[in-house]
Amino acid sequence: xxxxxxxxxxxxxxxxxxxxxxxxxxxxxxxxxxxxxxxxxxxxxxxxxxxxxxxxxxxxxxxxxxxxxxxxxxxxxxxxxxxxxxxxxxxxxxxxxxxxxxxxxxxxxxxxxxxxxxxxxxxxxxxxxxxxxxxxxxxxxxxxxxxxxxxxxxxxxxxxxxxxxxxxxxxxxxxxxxxxxxxxxxxxxxxxxxxxxxxxxxxxxxxxxxxxxxxxxxxxxxxxxxxxxxxxxxxxxxxxxxxxxxx
Length: 247
Prior knowledge:
Elements: H1 8-12, E1 15-20, E2 23-28, E3 32-38, E4 42-48, E5 53-61, H2 69-80, E6 96-104, E7 110-118, E8 123-130, H3 135-148, E9 158-162, E10 165-169, E11 174-181, E12 184-191, E13 195-202, H4 205-211, H5 214-219, E14 230-236, E15 239-246
Antiparallel strand pairs: 1-2, 3-4, 4-5, 5-8, 6-7, 7-8, 9-10, 11-12, 12-13, 13-15, 14-15
């Protein structure tokens, strides 16, 4: 395959942010989410390029009190039935981590497994790297993605980034709903019971505005509901970006 001829330098240039449900990472421009499932509390994302799946990132929210990270990591190692490395990469916000360089995959082949606990973000993270992937992709996932995987605390502004879109969100919001269409990405976020924030990006702007005038975009709500109390729309880098707030 062509990807097998890709060099490590090619795989590591042109990085873009990837951020979802409280964790953040950087991936090569050629990578993208292939599948997203689950909710704010628990879910998974498979990331790869045009030829193959390279890594799966899974998350789950941990209890506010009483979560035993050491016991959780020990259970994960027993389940993997493979030896752990002496040290595990830990990005910002990751307090405890476990790295298993090679373990059998359920469907055959082998994978590297990484587990990390981010207490401030209340996240338990799991990554499975496809060891059968192209060497450059495998190298990037093991040497760049895992050490850079981060989980900011709840007091920090949150980043949501995928498919070329990036949103910086005030602290305290959690994912309520999302819609990911080709050229049209929308997230609905909640804070408390009444504070709702909807962000949306449609691209390219020339196509978006050709499909519907600006005033029609102002009246459109990607998840239904009444008028926004706060609203912003901007054009930049070939995108139409919306920011809606309702109380």
